[in-house]
Amino acid sequence: MYVNASYMELLTLAPLDLTATSMYPVFVFGTLTYLIIVLCNLLVLATIAVSKKLHKPMFILLFNLPISDMLGSTAFFPHLLFSIVTQNRVISQPACITQAFLIHFYGSGNMLILSAMAYDRYIAICCPLRYNAIMSPKKLIRIIILIWLINFSMMFTLFLLLARFRLCRTNVADLYCNNPSLMKLVCEDTRINNIYGLLSVVILMGGPLLMIIYTYAQILRTCVMTNQTDARKKAFQTCGTHLVIFLILQINTIFTFISHRIQSASPYIRRLLGISILLFPPFLDPIIYGLKTKELKQSIEIFLKRNIFSTKL
């Protein structure tokens, strides 16, 4: 459908294809999922904030992950739930671009945060005597500022390049707004956007992937060489948890991007992969870290006993 861009304000997202009987169960499931994501991530944030023994580089870096997760979930779930209730898939163009920006900001932010956490584990395991000097408070603050600065500047530039176009179509191919789907609505020359988009993927996905490969290879080498069984077990447990979360996000994101560039790719598989990016990491991050990281697990239990269960007694 082609229309004059100057008159275009509303876009239409891909239909949910819900029947009258399935609409309410899906709404309840979506609401509960969003509430669990928010509450679990807030619990991790609050626990790290109030527990002094968690005021270490590893957990201060981890503190940024729930913020990013909640940002991505909030960009997606409220509008989805509203669409289910109203059976209306229309979204304004500014709202669509804002949603796309926040979702991409969440995804790339998680990649950068996880790579910084991998670097922290690498220093802690491979250079334990220099850990405090390398991961000093000043350097830690610089790392965190750099993460958010790189993320914001690259995503802002990406969508600034998109905003210069006038959209000539209205039907968004996915269940939520994202840069590849919005680019399909443009009828002008998008070569600069495509080049910058590929550059962003290389930097924001390839960079963290190389960081993970290098740091984990060094960690594995150190763990194999060490004779301390307890230290080796703790290292594998911490790094294994981190690697699972990283791979879930990385693999799903890669396949989603690839499916956008393959014309014959099933749109249903692409939408399923797209939703999984916004569902599994925010849902699993606090649960996996809370259960597998001993210090955090103990601090969460203490926090709940002091602030939740004590009020009921």
Q: What's a concise summary of this model?
A:
The chain is mainly α and 313 residues long. The protein is 78% helix and 2% strand.
What is this structure's SSE topology?
Layout: E1 10-12, H1 20-50, H2 57-86, E2 90-92, H3 93-126, H4 131-134, H5 137-163, H6 179-183, H7 191-225, H8 229-261, H9 267-292, H10 294-312
Antiparallel strand pairs: 1-2
Q: Can you offer a commentary on this structure?
A:
The chain is mainly α. Helix content is 78%, strand content 2%. The protein has ten helices and two strands; from the N terminus they run βααβαααααααα.
Core attributes:
single chain; 313 residues; mainly alpha; Rhopdopsin 7-helix transmembrane proteins; two-stranded antiparallel sheet; 10 helices; 2 strands; 78% helix; disordered N terminus
Q: Largest beta sheet: what is the strand line-up?
A: 1-2
CATH topology: Rhopdopsin 7-helix transmembrane proteins
Q: What is the CATH level 1 assignment?
A: Mainly Alpha
According to CATH, the homologous superfamily is Rhodopsin 7-helix transmembrane proteins
